Amino acid sequence: MPFTDPPLAGTRVVTLAVNVPGPVAAARLRRMGASMVKVQPPAGDPLGDYAAGWLAELDADLEVRSLDLKAPDGRAELDELLASADVLLTASRGSALRRLGLGWEELHARCPQVVHVALVGHPAPDDDVAGHDLTYQATAGLLTPPQLPAVLAADLAGAERAVSEALAGLLLRARTGEGSRREVAFADCAAELAASVRHGLTAPGGLLGGGFAGYGLYPAQDGHVALAALEPQFWQRAQELLGGADHDTIAATLRTRTAAQWQRAAEEHDVPLVAVAGAPGSSGRGSR
What we know:
alpha/beta, 6-stranded parallel beta sheet, 14 helices, disordered C terminus, CoA-transferase_III, CoA transferase, CoA-Trfase_fam_III, transferase activity
């Protein structure tokens, strides 16, 4: 949803970041009011090859230019854009940026006003180590093999952090008068997302990992429901609606109706229970 009073109106952003995190971050900054020029290679953003609809949504309100940054003309056009830019967003390894003359020292010397938000896989000095969302989640302990993750958690968390770092860099520039380099490492994002697992909260058997009957997934007559009655008032109403406080009793009760019927009943009794989206009987809503 666009802002009624865009906080980044008048801010100029140039993004070279393709694939998932860069376009997600760019779209968010654009919704906050920034003017946005996306520079992509002549072959286009690879995201368009495997999720064209998503990329079309993300790029819908951006100016997109296809430039060969290894060619003099393309590089000259990029330099012209950067001369008036406030933020540069990249998602390339450090060595690749240095080959393009976009290492931080060189960039800062030419364009001291630019805040460079660098999306990388691993923190420097390991920013040349290859990786993707799956490997970051694997290292952080977020996977349950052989199931692949349904959400690109590290990528999307990195995109949101890129927006935060852009804002932090702009605030710092307002005090110092100069741009700064802000690094966002997907491996760090994945590690922080895994904090609830490391501390036992969502680990198997933990309070939110199956240990508490009021928080879990249960089969209904068709499909599944998600019950999240954590607070005492919700848990009390859930017990009254479902006839008990243990896993077996709740499971037996929930099997007597469809997921959609249970969601309607939960809404009437102010209990946080919904049909699991995509399952038979689901309303398509995954949260309240």
